[in-house]
Amino acid sequence: MLLTGLVLVLLLTLAGPLRQFLAGRAELTRLAAEGTALDQRVEQLEAQLERQSDPDYRTRQARERLAYVLPGDRLVVVVDGDAVEGDAGTVPEPADGDLPWYEALVQSVAVADGDEEPDE
């Protein structure tokens, strides 16, 4: 009985520090994994920085993303004809030429906003 009480007191005494030790090891493992992930991210960013310092890469990205062209080059944009619904490049002629300019302006804004159908 005395021996079991002594073992129980010893276990209760060691339980707190043992739990903290195991929690600390788990924290170290988590931080090591986080550090590895951050190292990989740093490598990716350094590779991206190296790519972006290349003038050919910057020129290619400007052409692709921003549609920039060099002087003397011609930019050609091809639009898929099947994907386009209607002709977005034309503006219908006004039916009433006798409207005051401010009413014509309000009507054109309403048509552009989709509130009204264009008068044809």
Please give a structural write-up.
By secondary structure, this protein is mainly α. The chain folds into 2 domains: 2-77; 92-120, no CATH class. The chain is built from 3 helices and no strands. The longest helix is centred in the N-terminal third of the chain and has 51 residues, at 2-52. It starts with a helix and ends in a 7-residue tail after the last helix.
Secondary-structure topology with pairs:
Blueprint: H1 2-52, H2 55-66, H3 101-113
Structural domain count? 2
Order of helices and strands: HHH
Round the mean pLDDT to the nearest integer and report it.
85
Distance between the termini: 104 Å
What is the helix fraction of residues, given as a range?
A: 55-70%
Give the percentage of residues in beta strands: under 5%
InterPro entries: FtsL/DivIC
Organism: Geodermatophilus africanus
Protein name: Septum formation initiator
Features:
63% helix, mainly alpha, 120 residues, elongated
Compose a concise summary of this entry.
It contains three helices and no strands. It has 120 residues and is mostly helical. It is elongated, with a radius of gyration of 36 Å.
